[in-house]
Amino acid sequence: MTSLPDPYNYDDDNRGASPTRILSDRGIKDAISAGLIRIEPGFDPEKDRKRIQPASLDLVLDEVDETEPIKHSQQDGFNFKHAFLNRRTFPGRYVSTATLTEILWFGQLQNEQPLMLCPSMEARSSVRRLGGYIYHPGLCITAADRTQIEIGNFSCNSMHFSQGERVAQAIFTVRPRADYLWTLMHDPDHIPKPLEIGEKVRALDMGVEVRDAAQIRMLQREGYMKITPSIKTTRGSLLVHASDTAYRMRKIDGGIDFSKRDSYPKEDLLEKIDISCGYIVQPFEHIIIETIEQMELSPNVGIRFWDNILQSMYNDRLRRKDYKHMMKDWGQNSGMISLSDGWIDPGYKGGFSRQPKWLTGRRIYPGAAIGFGQVFFFPNGVGKAYGDASLGSQYQGKGETQFAK
After folding, report:
1. What's residue 311's pLDDT?
2. Residue 175 and residue 119: Cα distance in Å, rounded?
3. How crowded is the C-beta side of 173, counted as CA atoms within 13 Å?
């Protein structure tokens, strides 16, 4: 009989790969209070309430440390030296190594104990809609004096930021039995056993990945979420599909001032395109496609979207058995495969859009699968769901893509 997963039941871990677990907002706050996550200089979640979202921690930009082209063989005449004069610019078509205003500690440099919590990075939706994305979701570079992440800008427009703007968010994944494995490897008797840090982590409030199509449908049937017009899944992921509404970002002279993004009229930023007969996305052409699906999520469900996971299944060359060019495509798009590309908070209600990325042409048409959702269930709900007045939620109840703070 189908039942919903329990993040605190570890029996399923013995049947293969463990389901991913992530902290809720309550879990993040308790982890900070317990010293399991440290943010330096000191961070007070009560004073800066907007930083802790329903299941993530917003990350704040200090400056850009270095950049490199997304595609090294093609810089398209971009004036790299001129753009880099601004230490808080993400140049279009480049990956930027961004230094945060704070140092994020989660036990990654402490060899005397197991690593129980790991942040996985996600671009904030306001950055993603303008072309930004996280280049390596699991990469968090921490030294004694800085923490850095990598953010790519797939569009043709540079994005100009100010110090202190929120550009990304950390989703904290949980390794609930890392202490057992650690003691097995390090204890003289090689006996797995719980440690104090493990008991603290296992007591944190968290959600768990839903990896079964029957369980995803059960969430809808029991009222935890409502996906319309229908739910479609593949390999335990929720599929979303292209509608016939799509836009291409225009070239903006001088780039986009991120702090003033809500002042740009939509028609100045985007031009509508026709994908009814199929549309080939060109390299560094930032396309925004509204999905057919609309979503109403309860405080118990969040969804993380990924792009290009099954790209080869929908690739025209695979259908034509053109394996030579298919492998060439994959080689040239190695940095575009399995992109973490959008987190939807528990409590969100409204439409959704996708921004497909590919460097050698990608055909998009109405009904095409353009996103793969990793569904998470929080049995206790989250403390503050999306739409709570204290969180500064931007897009609640919007039917189409919005460009607002």
Report:
1. 52
2. 11
3. 16
CB–CB of 137/163 below 8 Å? no
Instruction: Provide the residue type at 376 as one letter.
Output: F
Local mean pLDDT, 10-residue blocks, the chain (405 residues): 88 71 97 94 77 95 91 55 69 94 88 90 94 91 89 94 95 95 85 93 97 95 97 92 96 94 91 95 93 97 85 53 66 78 94 89 89 96 87 58 48
- pLDDT at residue number 380: 97
What contacts 11, CB < 8 A, 6 or more positions away?
Answer: none
Q: Cα angle vertex 156, ends 338, 271, to 5°?
A: 95
CA 165 to CA 167: how far, in whole Å? 6
Q: What is the pLDDT of residue 82?
A: 45
* Residue 201 contacts residue 22 (beta carbons within 8 Å): no
In angstroms, the Cα distances linking 167 to 26, 98, 130, 152, 284 are: 22, 10, 12, 12, 20
CB 231 within 8 A of CB 220: yes
Specify the 3-state DSSP secondary structure of 165. Answer: coil
Say how many C-beta atoms besides its own lie within 10 A of residue 77's C-beta.
6
CA angle 157, 359, 321 (to 5 degrees): 160
Non-local (6+) Cβ contacts of 359 within 8 A are 70, 71, 283, 284, 332, 333, 336
The answer to whether 345 and 301 are in contact (CB under 8 A) is no
Q: Which helix (H) or strand (E) holds 316?
A: helix 316-319
Q: How far apart are CA 304 and CA 348, in angstroms?
A: 12
Question: What confidence score (pLDDT) does residue 308 get?
Answer: 75
Written as six digits, the tokens of 105 are: 């500690």
Phi-psi label, residue 329: left if phi above 0, alpha if psi -120 to 50, beta otherwise? alpha
Cα gap 364→356, rounded to integer Å: 9
The Cα–Cα gap between 88 and 251 comes to: 20
Contacts of 324 (CB under 8 A, 6+ apart): none
What letter would DSSP give residue 343?
Answer: E
Instruction: Give the count of alpha carbons within 13 A of 196, CB side only.
Output: 4
In angstroms, the CA 178 to CA 157 distance is: 43
At residue 87, the pLDDT reads 87
